[in-house]
Amino acid sequence: MDKKVALVTGASRGIGRQIALTLARDGAFVVVNYNGSEARAQEVVDTIVNAGGEAVAYQCSVSDYSKTEAMIKDLISTYGHVDILVNNAGITKDNLIMKMSEEDFDKVIETNLKGCFNTIRHLARQMVKQRGGKIINIASVSGVLGNAGQANYAASKAGIIGLTKTMARELASRGINVNAIAPGFVRTEMTEVLSDAVKEASVAQIPLKKFGEVEDIAETAAFLASDKAKYITGQVINVDGGMAM
Ligand code: NAP
């Protein structure tokens, strides 16, 4: 991946942080996008640089169409190319449908699904010009199977799967691979907030009987971003301990 420029959204912590570290380990120059966690994004950059890699932090809420456009224009004018896009930024605002507010529904769709649209919308033309690129969208097992209490989140992730397959079809002839990863339960701050009872009930549904680690997702993303995966497009790779088999 030497000299490849990779934009990883929501890379200040959790899965995105580990994807940034792994792509940098494999030789990419990594743009560590974040929304609010500036110090944590800088920690990711410092960790990469201390290990001999190259990275910069970049603040931008991917739910904002024009700010995302400005970020991508800036990256293209500064670096000349962006070769890998990992749409990882995501949030949850869980509730049963009868209690879910309109605001919580909209916010999750705007960040998780529209965030992917915003980055791809503004980067696709550049990737077409480059005659190549890798787009990896982080979906979820919730988008594959559905999950009680996550109507907004599961809809956003199912939407990402539809977006992925459609982008794969639109961009395949231009040498651009578009795939999704659907993680199961992964140990991050997003799942740390779950009660012990919910965690136990979740593990009971996982054939491998444990939560995944951020490395499980990051290694899959690095593979999809590499030329080893050049004949894979439009796929949803379930990295979920067997939940969605
Ligand atoms: P996390 O620890 O909560 O981290 C979320 C990241 O997204 C943070 O870096 C956050 O940045 C960023 N973010 C949130 N809103 C943003 C916005 N508007 N613009 C840019 N960045 C934004 O979550 P995670 O567990 O690592 O999850 C990462 C992805 O994997 C998400 O898409 C999630 O849905 C998906 N996923 C996770 C699991 C799991 O079990 N953990 C399972 C399936 C799928 P700031 O801190 O700067 O706001």
Overview of this protein structure:
This protein is α/β, with parallel strands linked by helices and 245 residues long. Helices cover 49% and strands 16% of the residues. The chain contains 9 helices and 7 strands. The chain has helices at 14-25, 38-50, 65-79, 102-130, 141-145, 151-171, 189-192, 196-204, 214-225; strands spanning 5-8, 29-34, 54-59, 84-87, 133-138, 176-183, 236-239. The protein has a 7-stranded parallel beta sheet, sandwiched between helices. Helix 4 (102-130) links the parallel strand 4 and strand 5. Helix 1 packs parallel to helix 2 and helix 3 (65-79) runs parallel beside helix 4. It is globular. The protein starts with a strand and ends in a 6-residue tail after the last strand. The mean pLDDT is 97. The structure holds NADP nicotinamide-adenine-dinucleotide phosphate. The site of NADP nicotinamide-adenine-dinucleotide phosphate has 30 residues, from helix 1, strand 2 and helix 7.
Secondary structure topology:
Elements lengths: L4 E4 L5 H12 L3 E6 L3 H13 L3 E6 L5 H15 L4 E4 L14 H29 L2 E6 L2 H5 L5 H21 L4 E8 L5 H4 L3 H9 L9 H12 L10 E4 L6
Parallel strand pairs: 1-2, 1-4, 2-3, 4-5, 5-6, 6-7
Helix pairs in contact: 1-2, 1-9, 3-4, 4-6
The structure holds NADP nicotinamide-adenine-dinucleotide phosphate (NAP).
Separation, N- and C-terminal Cα atoms: 31 Å
Strand order of the largest sheet: 3-2-1-4-5-6-7
Order of helices and strands: EHEHEHEHEHHEHHHE
Identify the quaternary structure here: single chain
What is the tally of helical segments? 9
* Number of E-state strands: 7
Strand content: 15-25%
Mean pLDDT: 97
Described by strand count, sense and barrel closure, the largest sheet is: 7 strands, parallel
- Given the helix and strand composition, which structural class is it? alpha/beta
Ligands, deduplicated: NADP nicotinamide-adenine-dinucleotide phosphate
Helical residue percent band = 40-55%
Residue ranges: pLDDT <50 for 5 or more in a row?
none
Shape: globular
**Rounded to an integer, what's the Rg over CA atoms?**
17 Å
